[in-house]
Known about the structure:
Layout: H1 4-8, H2 17-41, H3 52-76, H4 100-116, H5 119-140
Amino acid sequence: xxxxxxxxxxxxxxxxxxxxxxxxxxxxxxxxxxxxxxxxxxxxxxxxxxxxxxxxxxxxxxxxxxxxxxxxxxxxxxxxxxxxxxxxxxxxxxxxxxxxxxxxxxxxxxxxxxxxxxxxxxxxxxxxxxxxxxxxxxxxx
Length: 141
């Protein structure tokens, strides 16, 4: 998402380069942390992929990703070309939650944490909740 979404945006406020670099570094470090945790330290029993925790987490991750992608699509298509001003998104999870894109990403990473059952994945899910939760609250207001 960090690489694809910015390329799909048609117009809008430019992102400051420093903000882009910080976000990029965070994604690289988090990817390294998650990958290292799963490949070097996490130990799973042979039937883990059939365990209810893994299945529930995987479904949560998949549903969260679908909500996130669909919500981003709605947000990208809010305005017609050349149109400016604020618009309230409609459709999908926006009918239930004002920050549907944030909700989808939070669900996605809590599903990931449940599927992985590592302290690193839980830490990332909690960071996502606190950061995106505060952004969602600002957007709602």
